[in-house]
Amino acid sequence: MRCPTWLHVKRRPHAAEESLVKQSSWTTAHAERLLWRAGFGARPNEIEHWAQRSRGHTIDWLIRGGSGPHGTQRMVGPAPNADGKALDPNNEWGHDMLWWLDRMVRSQRPLVEKLTLFWHDHFATVDQDTPLMLAQNRMLRGHALGSFRALLQAVTLDPAMQGFLSLVDSDKRHPNENFARELMELFTLGAGNGYSERDVREAARALTGFTGNWREGRPLSIRYEPDHHDDGVKRVLGRRGRLDWRDTLDACIAHGAHAPFLVAKLWDFFVSEPLDRDTRRRLVATYRDSRHRIAPVVREILGHRALYADLHDPRMVKAPIVHIAGLLRLVGRGVDDRAWTWISGQMGQQPFRPPSVAGWDWGPAWMSTATARSRFLAATWIANDAPVKVQKGSVDVAWSPEEHVEQARAVTGRPWTSGATDDELLKLARRFLAHDVKPGDTVRAWQAEVTQSALRHLLLSGPDANLC
Amino acid sequence: MRACDDFHATDRARRRMLEAPLSRRRLLQAGLGATLSVYGARALGLGDSLEIAQASAAAAPNAPVLVNVFIPGGLDLLDTLVPVDAYGRYADLRPALKVAEPLTLAGTGLGAHRSLAKGLGGGLTGLFERGRLGFIPGIDYANPDLSHFNSRHFWETGIISMRAAPGWMARWIDRHGNPDNPFQALSMDSGLSPLLRGARVPVAAVSSPDDAQVWVPGVWGDWHERMMEHYGAIAARRPGAPGPAAVFGAARQSRQVATTLRPYVKDDDTGVDPLAAPVPYPGDTEGEGQNGFAENLRYLAAMLNLPLGIRVAAVQAEGDFDTHDDQRVTLDRDLAKVSEALSAFQADLEARGIADRVLTLVWTEFGRRAQENSSGGTDHGAGGLAWVMGTRARGGVLSPYPDLVTFDEHDNLKVTVDFRSVYASLLEQWLGTGADEILPDAGRVGRLALVA
CB neighbours (10 Å) of residue B71? Predict the structure, then answer.
């Protein structure tokens, strides 16, 4: 039987229409939430563009691309530079990360970048050469929304991954278990989830045969040497035979624990609410029916009403690089400063340098006293240059406190703030504008500028700005 | 030299961060905050933040403090602590590198690299002679992993596994710490040490009072204070959901750290440093080479003297001990920096009268190959070196020196002591708490007497 493609799945009447957010209640807040979770935030006019269309239309654009608020342009915004110089990601330290940050800021396929980040974390590869990591990044991007099987095969053949998890030169005499173990534990099944040490050892045998074209201690490319492969009979996850690497990956994907494991991890990436059993079952069915394609599962998650829970009280902690890309997107600034490499590092996430094979700890774990301060100073970095920096003479001394807050919001791309924060900002504006000003006198120009500087900064540095 | 690339990649990333911390200096260079000198000793409304730290300190004013110092790169044992009793064999293994005139450590059969005598009171060898330093040669774990990254991760978590896990000191402070005081576990760095990563109770990463402060373009002086009051009011919300709770909690605690340390920021205009040390540190004198490690220790000693309730601290030494080449030059220079910094720190603690409650553990991620290589260096090996230091540390040589004749199957020194036995011993003998609750293998690794 031919399995349906994901397009067929999409057209199929949905099994659980009630789990989707209601089409009739599609608002600006819904569009804003979706663009943060599926991307890196958006300017108010972009959010409005999607708010005026439909949920389906917006999700379609996220998944398939096509014409959006900027027509069919692929990248929108100023080209990147590092302190005035063009980026040289292969050779200049930190430019790899700036190159990717630029895509996060400017790409009109934000979901593709976001999922590339997901896979970068899922298939975390540590301490490999930059050109290999950039090649891996392009590979992950190409497969981001495609077939998980094709992605897993490409990851298995990836030189950076092979070097990192000692798959390259693992031969029949000394099969290395490193990759086999992570394949089951981290990539497909989850720790201790229905496999045994014997499965790991047997899989390591089946995965032998790769060798590398080495240069300067790195495998530049991978080839397969049948002579190095253990072609004996193995038993992996219940399959028996002269299994090779493809058979092993297929055994993992076909294992009963795989689909629930992967859909739950995708869910947690997009949604802060826990995944309930019914939804999980439906996502598993979607994933299996689509023959392990990623897009249909993501489509279903992005439409799920749980993603839109508490629209006025967001609960997901923005990952550091998502926060930085979002700040730049919202204020309409491009990547123009090498400082983002170490600022993101101090915030706890430098892309291309995950801390371990298990990737980063997401969610509340992002926050510490040091990272909170670094997040504050990320806003300082934004506020120290156009367009957020307050130019002398640009602030009208006649603005009321309300107008001050409104002007600050407009310049900073209208980031979300709670009602309590709104009250506090207004309080600040009133206090700052009244300070040392006698009744009947006008506010001094510098005083109005200080007020404006403080408001803009707080909109970007306050705790609210770290949530989406 | 495939194995060492990971060190350089990791270290490069670190150095970049250290070179460009979000310090006031750096921000001034960037043209921010022209009027920053308003900090300093001006009276500030510290709110409850200092009180929390003080209360936590007052509850146990003499509680023992464990300082954890990491020497990055894999320090070589043989040239640091020279086996003078087996000098012939040593010279065979190290024909080019051998240390010609090591300083004899009486009654041990060993000699110290001459750089270890650099610093106040005869440096580290001076501390050894006074019985305040105990060397632990041959330290590692079974089947040592020669990757910097992996081995370091094992030491940091206290678990021989590449799984992500909270640092072993994070696990300790979670059990024995305070729910409100971020100073209790201090990372003397702009980023949180992996030793403390993953803690559920508040911990802090700060390399100096200056490094805790924040700046806002165009908002200076009293206006900055006013703005931060509003920031504090926003951060006072205590949401229940885990994500917002973490964000608002960290915002409050970072303010707590900043305001508590605000009075101690050095005044760049007057040069007044409220945390000035009672002893000279390397790098203090004009023209001397900078020693960032010493500066971190200087701030740490001063902060240990404040009622902040510090229980554990993590510091990283300066230098590149991944000596695949030029080992002789590197050790001459970088061991001197380590010795000068640590001996100043110890003298400082003693001068302040707080030395009896501070014990320092110094470690490195692995040892190096006994046989030198052909580029004037040594490759990654096993059986490294650690030491404990302090007025209450047990002095001497506390573990067997590795055999120089029979090696393991990879031609490396045979490990003589598991680092986890040192951790377990420190937990029980110094911090006075159980080891099993922190280290999964505590029951299998034995103990060393480390506290006098």
Answer: 23
Cα–Cα distance for residue pair A119/A201, rounded to 1 Å: 25
Would you state the pLDDT for residue B47?
44
Looking at the DSSP assignment, which residues form a beta bridge with residue B135?
A: B387, B397
Contacts of B442 (CB under 8 A, 6+ apart): B420, B423, B424, B427, B435, B436
Q: What is the average pLDDT across B192-211? A: 88
Contacting B residues, span 60-79, partner chain A, CB-CB under 8 Å: none
Closest partner residue to A453 (CB to CB) among B6, B191, B219 is B219
In this predicted structure, what is the pLDDT of residue B1?
33
Which residue of chain B comes nearest to A376, CA vs CA? B214
| Residue at token pair 């550091």 | A320
Query: What strand order describes the sheet that includes B103-105?
Result: B81-82, B110-112, B103-105
**Nearest-CA residue of chain A relative to B163?**
A358
Is there a contact between B187 and A126 if contact means CB atoms under 8 Å apart?
no
Beta bridge mates, B67: B313, B360
Asked whether the beta carbons of residue B234 and residue A463 sit closer than 8 angstroms, the reply is: yes
Q: What is the mean pLDDT of residues B89-95?
A: 97
Q: Which pLDDT tens digit goes with each residue over B210-262?
A: 889 999 999 999 999 999 999 999 999 999 999 999 999 999 999 999 999 99
B303 HSE (CA, 13 A, CB side): 34
pLDDT (0 to 100) of residue A17 = 58
Kindly give, in sequence order, each residue whose CB lies less than 8 Å from that of residue B286, ignoring residues fewer than 6 positions away. none
Listed residue (B224, B217, B24) closest to A456, CA to CA: B217
B16 with A358: Cβ contact below 8 A = no
Which regions in chain A score pLDDT beneath 70?
1-18, 22-23
- Say whether pLDDT at B10 is over 70: no
Which single residue is written with the structure tokens 């060993």?
B110
Q: How far apart are CA B14 and CA A93, in angstroms?
A: 12
R_g of chain A computed on alpha carbons = 25
Contact between B230 and A428 using a beta-carbon 8 Å cutoff: yes
- Model confidence band, residue B286 (pLDDT cutoffs 50, 70, 90): low
Q: Which residues contact A18 (CB under 8 A, 6 or more apart)?
A: none
In the structure encoding, which two tokens stand for residue A300, read together? 């279903």
Alpha helices (H) in A123-173, listed in sequence order:
130-143, 148-157, 159-164
Q: Looking at residues B370-392, what average pLDDT do you find?
A: 94
Helices A110-122 + A95-106 axis angle, to 10: 140
Average pLDDT of the segment spanning B54-78: 90
Q: How many residues does chain B have?
A: 452
Rounded to whole angstroms, the Cα distance separating B290 from B271 reads 18
Question: ipTM score of the complex?
Answer: 0.94
- Token pair of A157 as six digits: 């053949």
Question: Cβ B237–A420 below 8 Å, yes or no?
Answer: yes
Residues B171-182, mean pLDDT to the nearest whole number? 93
DSSP category for residue B219: B
Gap between the Cα atoms of B53 and A113, Å rounded: 43
**DSSP states of B39-86 as a string?**
-SS-----TTHHHHHHHHHHHSTT--EEEEEEETT---STTTEE-GGG
> By the CB < 8 Å criterion, does B258 face chain A?
yes
SS3 B24: helix
> What's the token pair of residue B27?
């921000």
Beta bridge mates, A214 = A219
| Residue predicted with more confidence, B303 or B38 | B303
Is B239 part of the contact surface with chain A (CB cutoff 8 Å)?
A: yes
Greatest Cα-to-Cα distance within chain A, rounded to the nearest angstrom:
93
Q: Is B45 exposed, middle or buried (0-12, 13-18, 19+ CB in 10 A)?
A: exposed
Task: Choose among B187, B153, B447: nearest CA to B311.
Answer: B187
Output phi, psi for A54, to 5 deg.
-125, 170
